[in-house]
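Example (one chain per record):
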Amino acid sequence: MTVWLHKQHASLMPFGAPDQKTDFTADRVGIEKVDGRIVAERNEPRKSFTGHGLTTPWDPLDRAYFNGYALWTYLTTPFLLSMPGFTVTDIEPWQEGDELWRGLRATFPPHIASHSTQQDFYFGPDHLLRRHDYHVDIAGGFAAAQYVYDTVEADGIRLPTKRRAYRSDADNRPILDQTMVSIDLSNARFT
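Predicted structure:
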């Protein structure tokens, strides 16, 4: 997975075949051969999710779009919050066990594709991200709580290597037997 830090652009290789990759931006998603030939593409990809619910099947371009915006968001947090157009406000902290996590609510600008316009981020006493809450608008808008942990240092930047996203209930508590996404990262580097 490669993400650009200063603009919303991401690519995953391989995708669907050993010689294929994705090319994601907010207004276009493509599946391409490594030599650049286009296998499939979709302009304005978010429109294809109109009417989708939690159980609606996704085609490969849907998966490439979700993967692109989700991983771009995850791998550029918290830096993306300082990009033009974002607004960030303090919210009530979250009590998790014996720790109190500082809460920030981010409002994403319209030109950035992500789970939802408003997302909440919770940071531990060490100022590292612990939890990320959002609604998955492209899948019916269900609420999710994503926990992040096992932080490593890559080129002087600390980032989590494990992410587990769960559906959350009306009180924002994770429903631990409903894991929606499980991500393990390795070999992170900045260039």
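Caption: The first strand starts at residue 2 and ends at 3.
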